[in-house]
Amino acid sequence: MSVPTRSRRWFTVCALTASAALVAIPPSSAAGRGATPFGARVLGQIAKERVQSSGTVSPHVAADDKDGNESDEIAEGADQYAEARTSPGIVAPGAYGAAWNDLTHLRSAGGRWHNVTDLPYNSDDPRYRDFDSNSSGGSGNVTGRMAALAADDDGYVYAGSAGGGVWRSRTGGGRWRPISDRLPSQSTGALALDGKGRLWLGTGEASTNSDAYLGSGVYVLAHPHHGTFSPRRRVGGDELESTTIHELRFGGSKVWAATSAGVWSHSTRKLSGPWKLEFAPNPEYLAGGSQADDPDAPYKNITNDIAIDPADPGKVVLAVGWRSGDDYNGFYTKSGGTWKRITSGLGDLPGDAAEVGSVTFARSADGSRYYAIDQSPKQLKTNPDSGLEGIFVSKSGSPMGPWTKIADYHGLAADNSALDSPGYMPGIQSWYNQFLTVDPSDPQHVYAGLEEVYETTDGGSSWSTVGPYWNFGFSCWSIDPAKQSGDCNQTTHSDQHGVAIGRYHGKSFVYVGNDGGVYRRPVHGSQDASGHATDWTSLNDGTIDTLQYYSVGIGKDLDHGGLSVTGGLQDNGQSVLRSNDRVMGSNFGGDGGDTLTDPANGCNIAEEYVYLSVQVTQNCAVNDGSWINDPSKVTSYSVAPPDNATSEARFIAPLTADMKNGSTWIAGGRHIWVQTHGYAIRSGSEWTSVHDFGAGRVATAVAASGGKIYAAWCGPCNNEGFARGIAVGNADGTGWHDINLPVDGTVPNRYLSGFAIDPNNADHVFLAVNGFSRHWTEGPGAGVGHVFESTDGGTTWKDISANLPDVPANSALVTADGGLAVATDLGVVYRAPGHCTWRRIGRLPAVAVLQLKTSPDGGTLYAATHGRGIYTVKLRHLH
Question: What is the pTM (predicted TM-score) of this model?
């Protein structure tokens, strides 16, 4: 049976990396073809196909069965995450670096953070096999997105995450320890071991996925078996701050860096002194150039990889270009002292700018072959099935070719891929998913990563899908809770980014990094009759926590005592941690957005997918999969407000409950929606629109107390005409009015990201504002400040930012004693009751905190970090 169109279960949300500056936002053209979001869940679709002849289809599946293109949604999600941090203009380099410096110098508010999610997270937990779950897909234990890997022959493995730093294992994977927590950027772009065994780290994730951040440069760890990265070990000066780094390559006595600001080089012998700019196709758009303030500047000098001729390190080919296409895209080499585009003579490898996008090179150890993956902007724009141009080989060993195509998406799909259906085939996200490596002992043995993992042992004449997207759809699959995924072997998580080959106890292993963490198998592993590997091992043992949470929810665990903690994650669904758990489970697949949890019963949960696709459960979605044959046994229900059907909502849309009445929920899209049935809601028809922002506007934040609702909106939400505002009204639909927020007023013309209402007075409210102040942001009305206060129901506002560093603020929370906590892109700050200045809570790495909640008794603060899991701190320890 063919795999149904992916219902946006594991998929990616995109961002650029941060720590030294601007979060890059793709131009509007990058968002794709404007497809509506998927609604039906994959297991539901599978069940429907399997039982349609008997007519036993879950009614909840049929109600939410829409088509769409997930790749488009990923790009749109990337746009929106970045828009919040850059609109109304662009952000100058250095913003995040300055913010981190200021934050680390804040006085401490006391408190010590405790990680509550540092234990295994089983995506195949057999307890949670409801139709909204990916459990039984075959990925096993997972963690957050891994952007880059490196491994040596002594059993040491290094994993660089999207937003949670670099980790080291001394045991061939597992028993991980963080080694970059002192750096101002926890976002990884590249990891590489040089000939002397030094570990090089390029910060700034370069997947153009906007839920990570820009970097602070390149660092070296001279003895990576010991020690940790330090800011003092940065290579060169500040030339590579505020960039993303896709690859680090070595040739002769040079290290080359492919960055979002061109190609740079540095001596590997003397690490001081500045980086040299080797090539930028449009230098006028770089910092200090005449076009540096242009909104498209971040996309005018993107480079993806560097191929160095093994026979002559002076011969270099650059892969340059923005994924969605630009006139400068192409392959370049130096001729007569000048970099020139190669337009012919490459063989099958394209020379046309329209067909060269994201590119990855790999060279065999003996120098006899070069390989390349090429993503095509033309295919991205015109082909609904894939953006992949192909996989290529140069049998001469020279990056100058000639190159021969050895794979395309049709061929890969036919090799027992899980992605063999129109609309979602291999390479559909090749602008985001790419890796390539060659077995050091065999130049014809290659591993390639797109959404899946592919292997060839004959130089590309034939391929096997050794790491299928998932096991759904294969004849071996079963939802049987006694098995992981029926008779199928474990696969990897989807969406591949990093790869390395190393040795442990004398045996060679290939390590892959993806949206679910790190996996390994023997380099010469075994396969079943379908070409699927039988020997993948998840290395996400719970000692590595890079989970990327958007939200957190806490409620009493009535079955076991204590508390139940849940939260929505980038591409890893919804985690559920019961009070007696030694392993977290996943009861909801895809991207988990906002979360509502009943404080009195932690198994009453509303779990948001994207674009307000809300599901509700009243038993933690505990299910053994019997709903497949008996639809009445479904324990999750689709209750999406109508804005979901029209896509008139943010990718991660706001959802909340009234502080005084947990049965009254408020959801924000184009409309403000209210429903009063609490967790007993069973249909999207139970929502009522109480306010319409109007076409082109969508809610960015909502809050309610005692029937009074505060709602912020943007529209347009990007820097082309950015506008924002606040509306206030009542849950019964009365009294709605717009607050006057002029562009030059007290509240900046930036993204309004969160409200916090005083539990004792609904007219007393605080507002969190994202982005950077006008010192860094070039845009109309960027203003100053990040936290504002109103005592008259939002009519007037006062800036209370005081000594708060200039850092994007994501949400705020009023504590039971009247204190105010604010979640920022670099940690959590706190203002004690009766005080006017801010202090830093505890010590977290430079990780984004997106949401704050308190325990049911109000005594513990929970922080959802986007890269290091969920942390808690006791509020009584703060001052």
Answer: 0.92
